[in-house]
Write a structure and sequence with these properties.
Layout (H helix, E strand, L loop, with lengths): L22 H26 L19 H14 L2 H12 L3 H27 L5 H12 L10 H26 L14 H31 L1 H13 L12 H10 L5 H15 L5 H13 L10 H4 L5 H21 L2 H4 L21
Helix pairs in contact: 1-4, 1-7, 1-13, 2-4, 2-9, 3-4, 4-7, 6-7, 6-8, 6-10, 7-8, 7-13, 8-11
Bound molecules: fe (ii) ion (FE2) (2 copies).
InterPro entries: Fatty_acid_desaturase-2, Ferritin-like_SF, RNR-like
Subunit structure: Homodimer.
Protein name: Fatty acid desaturase
């Protein structure tokens, strides 16, 4: 609203109903949560996932006889990950005012950049693509720019939650194939310890990314349930993997991934959407869509927050509150570890709009 109202009208915006948090206060709390989470994340990342794309793997030992389907897949993984600078810079623009989120985006970008280099090494050391071929392919990829799938921060945050989980799933399934566990006849007997380790190492990073963005989205869900559920609904309605429009041989990659049993629409529904929904206290896509529809039917006479109670029927707000509380405990413990708790601790503040256990909103 602010950008379409002349400045002299800003004071005439509807006031926050008594007893509820103002948007400004909610934004401050979410920002504080992100900052604490980012600091915790960085320490943990450096301590437990400080691997190197060249030095952490025995590249010379990589199999030179992998089936062509496997090379197509790892080449596609490389193609997507090598847009890391675009992902980072584009996302940075929408969150640059947030300390926690923009600094995190740099850290995240540095991890995605390692994924690109590790997958490129995998393509090279498979010895089924020449260095010249790789250089030319990379040039083709880099001649295009990845753009944000959505214009605003909340939609992109929701998108990233699903995207990170989908990516993690892709790599875990590649790991299983490289461990000789594929049930597909054309991939039976494939084993490569190096490829298995690369896939696993990157999948662990993707799981950490998923968790970061999930914790962030949960904070939004807790303080801004309606806007957040709407964003989730929009994102799953048009979900596709990043850079699908940019990678020149995407169709072949996608079909190979599907035939290899790595990833497809069913996997998205079952192992991405359902998992993320469970983590967000959302029962199902149907429940989400119906909940939002119901919320819209509730009259909103004067811009006050009458919608509040209806939206809380759409998800398990008790579960989400518990998770946001636990996030704050984790942040507080981290802050205690270096004495920050004494000077500037991150504090959890309840959203008074969240109904209490007897089903009544706190402000009723
Ligand atoms: Fe990645
Ligand atoms: Fe990631």
């Amino acid at each position: 609203m602010a950008d379409i109202m002349p400045p002299n009208m800003l004071n005439e915006r509807p006031r926050t109903p008594a007893g509820l948090l103002s948007n400004q206060e909610k934004d401050r709390l979410i920002e504080r949560g992100f900052l604490g989470l980012y600091r915790w994340y960085t320490a943990r990342s450096q301590e437990t996932r400080n691997w190197n794309p060249d030095q952490s793997f025995d590249w010379r030992a990589m199999s030179k006889t992998l089936p062509p389907e496997i090379i197509t897949v790892i080449q596609g993984f490389f193609a997507v990950e090598q847009y890391a600078p675009d992902f980072t810079s584009q996302l940075m623009h929408v969150v640059r005012r947030s300390h926690g989120r923009s600094h995190f985006q740099l850290r995240w970008g540095s991890e995605e950049e390692k994924h690109a280099d590790a997958w490129e090494n995998a393509v090279l050391f498979s010895e089924q693509r020449s260095p010249e071929w790789i250089a030319e392919y990379k040039e083709r990829l880099r001649s295009q720019v990845w753009e944000l799938p959505f214009p605003d921060a909340i939609h992109n945050l929701a998108y990233t939650v699903f995207q990170e989980r989908a990516t993690q799933l892709n790599y875990l399934n590649m790991m299983k194939i490289a461990q000789g566990k594929s049930e597909k006849p054309h991939l039976a007997g494939v084993t490569d310890a190096v490829l298995a380790k690369v896939s696993q190492t990157i999948a662990v990073d993707e799981a950490a990314h998923y968790n970061f963005f999930l914790e962030g989205l949960r904070m939004y869900l807790y303080y801004y349930p309606e806007r957040t559920l709407e964003s989730i609904k929009n994102v799953i309605g048009q979900f596709s993997m990043p850079a699908a429009q940019l990678v020149p041989d995407w169709q072949e990659f996608y079909e190979t991934v599907y035939r290899a049993g790595i990833y497809g629409p069913r996997d998205f529904n079952r192992d991405v959407m359902q998992i993320a929904f469970r983590n967000l206290g959302i029962e199902s896509r149907k429940a989400l869509e119906e909940g939002i529809k119901k919320t819209r039917e509730v009259p909103d006479f004067d811009g006050a927050n009458h919608k509040t109670t209806a939206i809380f029927d759409t998800f398990d707000y008790g579960q989400v509150e518990g998770d946001v509380r636990r996030l704050h405990v984790k942040i507080q413990e981290y802050e205690k570890s270096f004495g920050m708790d004494r000077l500037d601790p991150t504090v959890f503040v309840e959203n008074p709009a969240v109904p209490k256990k007897d089903g009544q909103a706190a402000d009723d």
